[in-house]
Write a sequence for this structure.
C-alpha cells in the first residue's frame, strides 16, 4: 500500500468523532443512538473499502456526515411516497390512505392492552368480531358481519364453507379477474366448490340459472364487474330477481361486490357502483367486499348478511388463518364510524375526499405547485387532464383533474431520479412531459415535493 493511501486511511475520522458532530447529534434526537452509531460504522467501513480500491485526494468530513444522513433515512424498506399519479386507490402504492381518526384509534389500541376478545360486561372471554358487527349494523341493516384479511379471502372462505364439493352457479359474464391474478374460477376451485357457468359473456337470463339448478347446487352467485364494463347487446339478471329465484328454490344467494362503499355514489355521477346498503336491500344472504378500496379503510374483506350463514362461516377452521388483528379492527371501526354522517365521511376519509373533490379545488392546488416550482427555477405548466379512482373500482370513470407538466428532454430519467428522493415521488409521463396530478398530492406534501424536484434538477449529475 502506498504512503498516500496510508495517510488517507489515518485521516478517516473515528466513530466517536463523527458522533460528536452537531448534525449527527441532531439525528440521535430523531432516531436512536444505536441506529445512528450503526449507520456511522457502515458508512466509514464503506469509505475505507472504497479508498483501498480507488484513487482519493482528500477525506471530507462534511460529505461523510451527509452520506450518513442519507443512509439512515433508508433504514426501512417500506416508506411513504408522494403519489402524483392521480390514481386515488393505487394498488402498488398501498391503496387507501387512512383517515386521521383511524390512525389515532390504531395508535391508542397499539400502545395498550385492549378488550379484543374480552367481554367487559360479563367479565369473561368475548368475540373479536363483536366490535365490527356493532359498527356495521349502525350503517347497514344487516344481521351479522365478520372480517378477514382481504376480499379474496372473504370469497374463498364463504365458498369453502357453504359450497365445498357442491355446485355454485355463476354467469359467464361475471367470471372476473382482479389485479394480482385473482380469478373467480381459480378461487372457486381452491375453495373446493364446483363452478357451473351459465349464459354467455354478454347475455345471461334468469332461465339460465333456473335450468342449471340441480340437487347438488349450493349457491347462486353474482359478481359485480367492478373493474370493467360490458356495453352493447347485453342482458343480466338483477340481484333482486336472483334472490327471488334462490328463495323459491331454497338456495342461498351470494354477491361478491368487490369494492364496497357505504355512500350512494350515483349522486356524484358514478352510476355503475352500487352502495353496500343498496345491495343488501335487494335481499342476498351473503355479501363480500373490500375494506381498502372505495370504503377507504385498511386491507380487509367483509362478509356480511344473514346470521345463520355468517355464523357458519365464522366457525370454519380456516377462519383462524384468515382473521385480522387488533390494529386492522381498530382502523376499520374508526373508519366505519365516520359513515354515520355522509358529509363527515366525504370530508375525513381521504379516498372519498380525493375521488369527489371539485376540479376547481384541485386547480388551486395545482397552481400552488406550479408557482412553487417556477420560483425554484423549474419550468412547469398547468394543464387539464383526467385521473382515475383506481383499485379495480369505477371502470372508465375518468374524472376531471389538473396537472403540473414539467417539459424535459429526459422524462424517464427524471421519473427514475425522483424515485430515489426522500420521500420518493411517483408521477406519470405524458406527451414527453413528467406530469404531477394534483388530485392525489396532499397539502402537507407540497413542500416536500418542491424539495425533491429541486434536489434532482439542480444536482450536478442531472
Amino acid at each position: 500500500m502506498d504512503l498516500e493511501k496510508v495517510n488517507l486511511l489515518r485521516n478517516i475520522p473515528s466513530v466517536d468523532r463523527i458522533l460528536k458532530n452537531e448534525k449527527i447529534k441532531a439525528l440521535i434526537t430523531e432516531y436512536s443512538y444505536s441506529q445512528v452509531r450503526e449507520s456511522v460504522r457502515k458508512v466509514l467501513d464503506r469509505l475505507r473499502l472504497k479508498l483501498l480500491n480507488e484513487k482519493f485526494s482528500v477525506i471530507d468530513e462534511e460529505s461523510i456526515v451527509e452520506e450518513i444522513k442519507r443512509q439512515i433515512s433508508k433504514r426501512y424498506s417500506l416508506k411513504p411516497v408522494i403519489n402524483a399519479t392521480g390514481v386515488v386507490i393505487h394498488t402498488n402504492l398501498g391503496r387507501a390512505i387512512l383517515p386521521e381518526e383511524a390512525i389515532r384509534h390504531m395508535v391508542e389500541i397499539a400502545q395498550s392492552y385492549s378488550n379484543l376478545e374480552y367481554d367487559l360486561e360479563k367479565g369473561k372471554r368475548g368475540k373479536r368480531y363483536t366490535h365490527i358487527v356493532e359498527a356495521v349494523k349502525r350503517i347497514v341493516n344487516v344481521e351479522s358481519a365478520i372480517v378477514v384479511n382481504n376480499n379474496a379471502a372473504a370469497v374463498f372462505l364463504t365458498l369453502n364453507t357453504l359450497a365445498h364439493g357442491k355446485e355454485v352457479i355463476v354467469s359467464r359474464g361475471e367470471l372476473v379477474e382482479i389485479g394480482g391474478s385473482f380469478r373467480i374460477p381459480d378461487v372457486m376451485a381452491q375453495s373446493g366448490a364446483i363452478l357451473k357457468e351459465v349464459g354467455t359473456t354478454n347475455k345471461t337470463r334468469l332461465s339460465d340459472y333456473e335450468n342449471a339448478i340441480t340437487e347438488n347446487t349450493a349457491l347462486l352467485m353474482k359478481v359485480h364487474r367492478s373493474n370493467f364494463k360490458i356495453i352493447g347487446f347485453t342482458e343480466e339478471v338483477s340481484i333482486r330477481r336472483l334472490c327471488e329465484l334462490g328463495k323459491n328454490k331454497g338456495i342461498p344467494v351470494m354477491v361478491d361486490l368487490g369494492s364496497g362503499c357505504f355512500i350512494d355514489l350515483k349522486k356524484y355521477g358514478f352510476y355503475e357502483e352500487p352502495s353496500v346498503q343498496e345491495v343488501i336491500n335487494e335481499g342476498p344472504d351473503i355479501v363480500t367486499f373490500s375494506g381498502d378500496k372505495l370504503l377507504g379503510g385498511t386491507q380487509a374483506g367483509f362478509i356480511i348478511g344473514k346470521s345463520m350463514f355468517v355464523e357458519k362461516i365464522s366457525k370454519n377452521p380456516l377462519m383462524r388463518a384468515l382473521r385480522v388483528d387488533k390494529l386492522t379492527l381498530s382502523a376499520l371501526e374508526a373508519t366505519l364510524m365516520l359513515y354515520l354522517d355522509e358529509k363527515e365521511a366525504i370530508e375525513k376519509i381521504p379516498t372519498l375526499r380525493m375521488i369527489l373533490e371539485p376540479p376547481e379545488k384541485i386547480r388551486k392546488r395545482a397552481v400552488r405547485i406550479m408557482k412553487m416550482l417556477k420560483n425554484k427555477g423549474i419550468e412547469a405548466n398547468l394543464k387539464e387532464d383526467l385521473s382515475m379512482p383506481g383499485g379495480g373500482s369505477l371502470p372508465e370513470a375518468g374524472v376531471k383533474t389538473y396537472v403540473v407538466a414539467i417539459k424535459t428532454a429526459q422524462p424517464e430519467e427524471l421519473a427514475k431520479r425522483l424515485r430515489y428522493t426522500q420521500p420518493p415521488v411517483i408521477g406519470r409521463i405524458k406527451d414527453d412531459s413528467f406530469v404531477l396530478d394534483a388530485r392525489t398530492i396532499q397539502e402537507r406534501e407540497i413542500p416536500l415535493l418542491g424539495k425533491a424536484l429541486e434536489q434532482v434538477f439542480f444536482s450536478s449529475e442531472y
User: Anything to note?
Assistant: The chain has three domains: 3-72, 82-93+354-457, 100-348.
